[in-house]
Amino acid sequence: MSTIKPSFDRAYQDFLRDIKIQVVQSRIEAARAVNRSLIRLYWSLGQLIVERQEALGWGKAVVERLSADLKAEFPQITGFSPRNLWLIKQFYEAYAEAPEFLKQLVAEIPWGHNILIMQRIKDEVARHYYLEATARLGWTRNVLLNQIKAGAYEVSRQDKSHNFSTTLPEYLAEQAEETLKSQYSLEFLGLTQAVHEQELERNLIARLKDFLIELGYGFCFIGSQYRLTLGENEYFLDLLFYHRFLKCLVAIDLKTGRFRPEYAGKMDFYLEVLNEQERAPDDNPSIGIILCAQQDRLEVEFSLKLKTNPIGVATYQLYPQVPEEYQGLLPTDEDWQRLLESALPEEDDN
């Protein structure tokens, strides 16, 4: 009986892995091709409906009739309901005058994602952001919805606090800046009030998949309370990640209060140790992110000015913000405190 040599087995496993990658890649490309074909069909249908209605003065009834006739002619094909035909018409109208690059982007994401963006986002620049992010990051429809609710586009336009331009090569600084958000939405934790740092960390680890989605594409989790040693001393990083595209370690320090200047010094020290002990020879310099509840931009700017390692400072949001039109109408924490104090019985001096 012949036996398979270990070297042959290893070579075969590598061969099988390469075949699997090819099969998966082929299926992904086929799915994308089918989606592009479907979007092009819907675009053509929407254009025909709009042009005929305008040229011949047809009213809304034509869509109902068209739906019935198409379903009778192509019973095996879904997507010809009156509702979907109206959405197809709206889809064409929404992008008919849009720039060519935007028309190309809509073909890169599924129809359901297109409907969500079309119905919820009216600003063209914001639509571009969500279309591009969905195509590039592969957001599911639920993730896309959560990103829209969290105002990901508005957050992306806010100024970001970091020292990347002075501590990283230009090409890498731009990539790191794009990766960092000014604010992270942690509403998925379901917390209704502020918590201690340890509890915040435990909740993030318990919902790690959601946290990775919020961080963005490319983050790979390494560990929590990651141990570093220097001589006889030991230190613990709250969270440690590796970023596949930046090709560097990313340390995250969680703070439930407002940013303080000493946090930057602590992170700078951690990054020095990381680079000395954990960084691989072909890795880029490690990056630190201080995630806190509040920050003063001027204070952050001065705190990072002389630091030699790349550090970003961002805030997080635990629960939905009060809509702008209602801000100032609800009592603040100080108001509640005054109300409680006034409700207490006065002390008897006797």
Summarize the structure.
The protein is an alpha/beta fold. The chain has helices spanning 6-56, 61-73, 82-95, 100-106, 111-120, 124-137, 141-149, 152-157, 164-167, 170-179, 197-206, 208-215, 261-277, 297-304, 333-343; strands at 161-162, 183-185, 219-230, 233-243, 248-258, 287-294, 311-317. It folds into two domains: 19-155, no CATH class; 159-320, Trna Endonuclease, Chain: A, domain 1, CATH 3.40.1350.
Throw out a few tags for this protein.
350 residues; alpha/beta; Trna Endonuclease, Chain: A, domain 1; 2 domains; seven-stranded mixed beta sheet
What kind of sheet is the major sheet?
7 strands, mixed
**Global mean pLDDT:** 87
Could you tell me the CATH topology label of the largest domain.
Answer: Trna Endonuclease, Chain: A, domain 1
Q: Nearest-angstrom radius of gyration? A: 27 Å
Distance between the termini: 103 Å
Assign the CATH class of the largest domain: Alpha Beta
Fraction of helical residues: 40-55%
Instruction: Tell me the structural class.
Output: alpha/beta
Domain YhcG PDDEXK nuclease: 178-330
GO molecular function: nucleic acid binding
InterPro entries: PD-DEXK-like_domain, tRNA_endonuc-like_dom_sf, YhcG_C, YhcG_N
Pfam family, one: YhcG_C
